[in-house]
Amino acid sequence: MRSDEPTRLANIITSLFRDQSITTEQVVVDETSTVDLVAGADAQDDCAVFRMNGDQELVVGSDYVRGPKFRLCEMGYLSEYDLGHYLVAANVSDIAAMGAHPIGLLSVVRYPPDMTDDSFENLMQGIKDACAKFRCPNIGGDIGSAERLILSASALGTCRRGGALFRTGAKPGDLVCITSPTGLAGAAMEYLRAQRPCAIIDELHLETMLDSWRRPVARVDEGIALSACRRVTACQDTSDGLKATIECIASASGAGIAVFEDSVPVPEPAAAVARHLDLDPLGLVFGDSVDFELTFTAPSDAVDQLRNEIGLHVIGEVTDDTDVVLCRSDGGRTPLPGKAWKHTVDEAGG
Amino acid sequence: MRSDEPTRLANIITSLFRDQSITTEQVVVDETSTVDLVAGADAQDDCAVFRMNGDQELVVGSDYVRGPKFRLCEMGYLSEYDLGHYLVAANVSDIAAMGAHPIGLLSVVRYPPDMTDDSFENLMQGIKDACAKFRCPNIGGDIGSAERLILSASALGTCRRGGALFRTGAKPGDLVCITSPTGLAGAAMEYLRAQRPCAIIDELHLETMLDSWRRPVARVDEGIALSACRRVTACQDTSDGLKATIECIASASGAGIAVFEDSVPVPEPAAAVARHLDLDPLGLVFGDSVDFELTFTAPSDAVDQLRNEIGLHVIGEVTDDTDVVLCRSDGGRTPLPGKAWKHTVDEAGG
């Protein structure tokens, strides 16, 4: 792990990553394939090194996170620890969406000159704790100074040969599922930006909503189960919002998707915020809410089998046209509600 | 490759990376180990996917580069294309220093709202061209907006089992070598920051010095040769400056290093700048010059063999104490000259 700052490296980072290369458990991909960490962050070399044994698929992705530029951070709701946790969750989520076992995370942390050692340590602890939670050791990266806090990372994972889940394979007749309800992250944003406090929401729902930013969950176990099932045809995380995710899977697969309004779960906090602010609750559920659930497609009998292994909600099905529609409970068919993430870059989160 | 910006993705990036997954050549690590790119940037999925076959060592690292905050960029000497090239060279150099074959690069490019499409395209072209030069396809990353241009990347490489080169194995009696003279990047900084133009330097040396920033070379072939030799005991790139690199290898290996003043090559541009500005030329060669040469240690007969394969300069030897010294031509022994990179974060480059 490179550092421009010898004191912080020596005092904080070294103690966080001591013995990592020795203590990190082997990842067993299948009967013939394993991954061992040979040199992690503790080695402080130019790179980290893994020993790969047998045939497997390596999965890698990068996510920059706005971090200190998150509106909720600017409003004082997110600590450095929370930002560190978020950085890891966002990156590991991409690995989970491919159906892979996480094997390591490279973190880029550039900090401003006035950042205190306590804040820096909290940030690194948030990274470390989230890495432990998602079984994805922080194997190195780049630490140094900048004019403000800059956070980026890359995550690596592995799965058996042919095990990676893509966005492209959805087939007409497949069911469309999500691992858990979406919309909490967006509801938190709408509620707190409106600055119209509601005692009931504050008491009952605010912590739950804030946890979608403070402790987001990368669906690692779910992704592994989806890959192991061998019949999942497409998968993507909802970090761009559910609407964008469904539209992307449909487009990449050259298929249509019909979502059934009555099947879409609306988390109670999102419903409460929608009532309070006079918004369409489905707009919160489908819109630019940066959640990290997995959206996937599979034949119905495979979905029945998966129900025994992971939480899931069937929300629609793949069709043989190329339309993405919401089938309303009144029989109408409309476009999916909600703002698409891609068109609101400066407003939204990730 | 994720993007917050559909137009730029569609118009610029898609055309840059078309058919990458099909056209990228297999990396042959050894008789039994290969790497194939299954899904690259063109797949536009959550992650890129490689198929790994057989036993091998995966090498991964991340480097953030100051890019627009480089002093030479602020002074107008570096274009967006140059910054893209630099980002790739800095990251691939870490792979080269481990002795690995590059297999892919994840780039994080966050651009300011006022960046023109031409500038953005030039930047991406610089990334693409450097990736081609170093045989390291740009397989994805994260593209989106930020308040200023932010550049970071992660590079991946592979080598045979046991083939990775670390900093830790230097043995007393080994020779200390560099692949090419260092100091050009630092000399360019000193000369241009001094703002004391010299017609001879401008005519004879400025382009050469600027090329160390505009077209730095990651020593990929050299790193592969060093690993293949099987007798190189330690290796590191000089991106923190030669002094810091030598001190790091000595410290990591628990050994001393004696550098012989008469053996250290001083590139003519650095000598000219030193004369012009009345500086110690060895201070430029050893100091905070962000070059991407490889510094390595090996027994002398292995060095003789390597001379037939790569360019190298023997500059010293590993000793059985723990001192790092410069053996002056007058017989004196002094610490290595030059400012160490780590203590000049806000002044220097990478």
UniProtKB/TrEMBL annotation, chains A, B:
The protein's enzyme class: transferase
Amino acids binding Mg(2+) 3: D46, D94, D237
InterPro entries to which the protein is assigned, alphabetical: PurM-like_C_dom, PurM-like_C_sf, PurM-like_N, PurM-like_N_sf, ThiL-like
Catalytic activity: thiamine phosphate + ATP = thiamine diphosphate + ADP
Signal peptide interval: none
Additional detail: Reaction mechanism of ThiL seems to utilize a direct, inline transfer of the gamma-phosphate of ATP to TMP rather than a phosphorylated enzyme intermediate.
Binding locations of Mg(2+) 2: D63, D94
Keyword Lipid metabolism tagged: no
Residue positions binding Mg(2+) 1: S62, D63, D142
Keywords attached to this entry: ATP-binding, Kinase, Magnesium, Metal-binding, Nucleotide-binding, Thiamine biosynthesis, Transferase
Amino acids binding Mg(2+) 4: D46, D94
Positions of the PurM-like N-terminal domain: 45-158
Molecular function as annotated in GO: thiamine-phosphate kinase activity
Residue sites binding Mg(2+) 5 per the record: D240
Gene3D superfamilies hit by this protein: PurM-like C-terminal domain, PurM-like, N-terminal domain
Organism: Lentzea rhizosphaerae
Name of the molecule in the record: Thiamine-monophosphate kinase
Stated family: Belongs to the thiamine-monophosphate kinase family.
Enzyme Commission number(s) from the entry: 2.7.4.16
Ranges where the PurM-like C-terminal domain occurs: 171-324
Pathway: Cofactor biosynthesis; thiamine diphosphate biosynthesis; thiamine diphosphate from thiamine phosphate: step 1/1
Taxonomic placement: Bacteria, Bacillati, Actinomycetota, Actinomycetes, Pseudonocardiales
Residues bound to ATP: G141, D142, R167, S239
Entry function: Catalyzes the ATP-dependent phosphorylation of thiamine-monophosphate (TMP) to form thiamine-pyrophosphate (TPP), the active form of vitamin B1.
Binding site for substrate: W341
